[in-house]
Backbone:
């Protein structure tokens, strides 16, 4: 299994909006084949039973490619499917509570928009931060915008890995160069692509280039 910092490079976050009749596990496998380094299953509409069923199926795909499998916001589902970790936002369960629930061996990711939030998340046991939205995004309409200078300040303030998220595509990813981020989390840039595997290869190469001189 990759280290958490290395796993930040191309972090795929699912969205069934782009399935177009395909099964989620199929498009996830394409992303992992193309070089996605981490996978977060985000489901806001499914029942707990459906979410768990989907999680167990996706976990098998992630195990096949030895990619960390993260559940968004649902500690119960994460525990039930033995996911590699959980990601929570500022409005979700307190990070310290999540850490107590999942134990020290699981990965804990926390969303942050300010240096203060980032430092608190690190203090509470977060293994990585998801910082954004660094660009405007249609995927999450309520996302707070995080300017480049704030992103850079967060990266300098914490010792844990930082992943940028929100409105990131091939045509703007290099604008994050020099910020200190360890990688990017992408939704539609991956799952809305016509050829997901090929798209992920390009995105992975671009992220490697962007993060090469991050510090």
Residues:
């Amino acid at each position: 299994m990759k280290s958490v910092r290395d796993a930040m490079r191309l972090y795929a976050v699912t969205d069934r909006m782009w399935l177009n009749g395909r099964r989620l596990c199929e498009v996830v496998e394409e992303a992992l084949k193309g070089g996605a380094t981490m996978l977060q299953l985000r489901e806001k509409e499914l029942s707990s039973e459906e979410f768990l069923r989907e999680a167990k199926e996706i976990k098998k795909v992630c195990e096949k490619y030895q990619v960390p499998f993260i559940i968004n916001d649902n500690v119960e589902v994460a525990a039930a499917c033995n996911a590699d970790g959980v990601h929570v936002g500022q409005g979700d369960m307190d990070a310290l509570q999540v850490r107590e629930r999942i134990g020290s061996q699981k990965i804990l990711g926390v969303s942050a928009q300010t240096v203060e939030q980032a430092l608190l998340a690190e203090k509470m046991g977060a293994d990585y931060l998801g910082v954004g939205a660094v660009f405007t995004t249609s995927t999450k309409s309520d996302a707070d915008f995080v300017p480049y200078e704030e992103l850079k300040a967060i990266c300098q303030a914490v010792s844990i890995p930082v992943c940028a998220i929100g409105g990131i595509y091939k045509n703007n990813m290099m604008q994050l160069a020099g910020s200190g981020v360890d990688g990017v989390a992408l939704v539609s840039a991956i799952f809305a692509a016509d050829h997901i595997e090929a798209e992920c290869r390009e995105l992975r190469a671009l992220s490697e280039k962007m993060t090469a001189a991050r510090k």
User: Anything to note?
Assistant: The domain at 4-210 is CATH 3.20.20.70 (TIM Barrel). The chain has one domain: 4-210. The beta strands are 10-13, 38-41, 69-72, 85-88, 107-112, 128-131, 162-165, 183-186. The chain has a mean pLDDT of 94.
